[in-house]
Specification:
It is elongated and about 80 Å long. 25% of the residues lie in helices and 30% in strands. By secondary structure, it is of the alpha+beta class. It has two domains: 87 residues, NE0471 N-terminal domain-like; 260 residues, 4-Layer Sandwich (Double-stranded beta-helix), CATH 3.60.130. The model has no long low-confidence stretch (mean pLDDT 96). The longest helix has 19 residues. The strands form seven sheets. It has a six-stranded mixed beta sheet with strand order 7-8-19-11-22-9. A four-stranded antiparallel beta sheet has the order 10-20-13-18. It binds N-oxalylglycine (OGA) and zinc ion (ZN). N-oxalylglycine binds next to strand 20 and strand 22.
Length: 369
């Protein structure tokens, strides 16, 4: 689409496009995005917005071979040239396109046979397969990679192809197996009810990877549920309960000999469009509620509603991982857990690590280029 004509108004430029539509660009916005104000190499803004007046005006504006030239009034420091392509891509009110901004797909128990699956060999073969895997994993928040080498570093290497790992108080990577002196229920043979990891962190880790190396013990099946789906069910069944879960901060805490990591946050986080964005849910890391007694009863009722959905078979997918498989899931969305196992019947060992959402999305954008 090309520009037909431009008009310099008092505080804004009106661009009339060939298709008959008009876009209005505030002058400060155009001045602030003049390419000359950016470092040519790093593409970072160096322009000082306070160096021009808030009521910046234009003396004239003209079309000039695919670009618009604006001569600024006093204080505006000369002229700015904005390309037609830039103007088209930055119409106020439209988000710039982002290959990682994909529609999510919520799921329940019926999803068991549709979980995206791939193999380590397929991911090694080409970048398109790798990109498709990242997009599939992001869409549903869960995928399974099979036929990974029997080596603790092999799953980790796959994760490192996405981005750097998120270090936590459990290390850069962690081994999930029964240990003598556990600081975490995961390191016992007990069942782990559905949860998200590290809700006590200021920002809980994004994607979690659990590479199964041994699963010879009786029991120890993996359990997953989509907390986006569960949250929407709560919203539909009881909007007021949902309101409490999205607004009342509750305390989460992990503490051992070395750490005492705590935060107060609402259990369900919404984005600016009111969609569920992240969920913190871990009965074992939720500290004693400290909201006023007057709302505690209602809060407990709302919390139990969510909790009951995590127990409902219609929301849950269960399967036993085989050595060589790795589950990848969005830890700020998908709840995970396991059934109890009997450590006397065999060895169970998972290698775990995290890659945050930001690094994950960055890899999607780089591969989509
Ligand atoms: C964990 C965890 C699941 C499993 O380590 O946080 O949830 O299958 N482990 O052992
Ligand atoms: Zn966990």
């Amino acid at each position: 689409m090309t520009i037909d004509r431009v008009e310099a108004h008092d505080r804004a430029l009106a661009v009339h496009w060939a298709d008959g539509t008009t876009t209005t660009y505030p002058y400060l916005f155009l001045r602030d995005n003049d390419l000359e104000g950016f470092h040519p190499q790093t593409k970072e803004r160096q322009f000082d917005l306070l160096s021009v007046p808030v009521d910046l005006g234009a003396a004239s504006a003209s079309i000039d071979g695919g670009s618009v030239t604006i001569h600024w009034n006093a204080g505006g420091q000369g002229r700015s040239v904005l390309s037609e392509a830039w103007l088209r891509a930055h119409r106020p009110g439209t988000r710039s396109s982002d290959p990682s901004d994909i529609e999510v797909k919520v799921w329940d128990a019926g999803y068991a046979d549709s979980i995206p699956r791939t193999t380590a060999a397929a991911l090694a073969s080409n970048q398109d397969v790798f990109l498709t895997w990242l997009l599939d994993t992001k869409r549903s928040g869960l995928s399974i990679v099979s036929e990974i080498e029997d080596d603790e570093g092999a799953g980790v290497a796959l994760g490192e192809r996405i981005g750097f790992l998120r270090r936590t108080n459990f290390g850069l990577t962690f081994r999930v197996e029964t240990i003598p002196d556990p600081n975490n229920l995961a390191y016992t043979s007990h069942a782990l009810p559905l949860h998200t990891d590290l809700p006590n962190q200021e920002m809980p880790p994004g994607y979690q990877f659990l590479h199964c190396l041994r699963n010879g013990a009786e029991g120890g099946a993996s359990v997953f549920a989509d907390a986006y789906m569960i949250a929407e069910k709560v919203r539909r069944k009881d909007p007021e309960a949902f309101g409490l879960l999205t607004s009342i901060p509750i305390p989460y805490r992990f503490h051992d000999e070395q750490h005492d990591i705590r935060v107060h946050r609402p259990m369900i986080g919404l984005d600016e469009r009111g969609r569920v964005f992240d969920v913190r849910y871990s009965a074992h890391l939720t500290d004693s509620f400290d909201m006023p007694a007057g709302i505690m009863g209602e809060y407990y009722a709302a919390y139990r509603l969510f909790m009951a959905e995590t127990r409902s078979p219609e929301n849950i997918v269960t399967f036993k991982m085989e050595p060589g498989q790795m589950v990848v899931f969005d830890n700020r969305r998908v709840l995970h857990g396991r059934t109890a196992f009997d450590p006397l019947t065999g060895h169970r060992l998972l290698k775990g690590f995290y890659v945050d959402r930001g690094e994950f999305d960055s890899r999607i954008r780089m591969l989509a280029r």
